[in-house]
Amino acid sequence: MMLRTDVSHRWRLVVVALVGVLGCSKPGQDDQVAPGSSGPQVPVNGVITLNGKPLAGAVVTFLPETGAPGLSDTDDEGKYSLETWGKPGLPAGKYKVAVSYLLSPSGTPLGLGVRSATTQSADMMAAKEQLPKEYSDLGRTKLSAEVGPAGGKFDFDVKAEIQAAGGEKAPEKKPDAVESESKVPAGSAPKEGTAPAASEPGPKGG
Fold first, then answer.
1. Cβ–Cβ under 8 Å, residues 55 and 158
2. What's the mean pLDDT in 185-206?
3. Domains in the chain and their CATH numbers?
4. Are the beta carbons of 104 and 127 closer than 8 angstroms?
5. Could you tell me the maximum CA-CA distance found in the chain, to the nearest angstrom?
6. pTM over 0.85
7. Collapsing DSSP states into helix, strand and coil, what is residue 95?
8. Chain segment 66-76, per-residue pLDDT in tens
């Protein structure tokens, strides 16, 4: 029986497996086909939005039927541009697509740099996936793409209610304050049972 692992562990395994290769490219290798790929790599990019707004700090993965996945962070405008084995682009073919948005306990998005560290930080170990498995889990994602010989642009809008980056929460609406006692407006009649103020004596006759 196949054991299921948590989402953050899946992502660590994928990225750590690549980290040794991502830093090993040498001059003159840029024109080579990536190891295990089915052909030359073509440019693949797009925009990730959350409920119609750009999602910064997410990690996008294109997983092929065979071979290595393409990976990218999203920038402040939600834009991504995939790389495979440290080289721009992907081979043409069909891909499962996953969008992961991990937040540390302090609310900081964790991108590829943190996820691919050989020693995982406390923030990474305690991070929580914010997006539903239908987007973030490579085994359950409903997102897909078919990359043609010329590459392409693939935009995805994910629907979810998540914690805002920075750990901010929507302010709670406080009930209107109820005055404990009513105030009598100036110039109004005194309350019943209250003696009227004494009037000043008039001038004495001469």
1. yes
2. 52
3. 7-23+35-158 (2.60.40.10)
4. yes
5. 122
6. no
7. strand
8. 999 999 999 99
Place of tokens 């562990």: 9
Enter the DSSP assignment of 148. B
What is the sign, positive or negative, of the torsion defined by CA atoms of 84, 132, 75, 47? Answer: positive
Share of the chain above pLDDT 70, in %: 62
Q: How far is the C-alpha of 140 from the C-alpha of 124, rounded, in Å?
A: 22
DSSP code at position 143? E
Run of H or E including 47: strand 44-50
Which structure tokens are listed for 38? 């089915």
Which residue do the tokens 């078919």 mark? 146
Helix (H, G, I), strand (E, B) or coil at 53: strand
Q: Which residues of 25-36 are buried (b: 16+ CB within 10 A; e: fewer)?
A: eeeeeeeeebee
Q: What is the pLDDT of residues 111-133, one digit of tens each?
A: 998 888 888 888 888 899 999 99
- What is the C-alpha radius of gyration for the chain, rounded to an integer number of angstroms? 31
Q: What are the tokens at 147?
A: 């990359």
Distance separating alpha carbons of residues 168 and 109, to the nearest angstrom: 13
Kind of pairing between the strands at 44-50 and 156-158: parallel
Contact 72, 60 (CB under 8 A): yes
SS3 204: coil
d(CA 53, CA 153): 18
* Contact residues for 11 (Cβ-Cβ < 8 A; gap 6+): 59, 61, 100, 102, 115
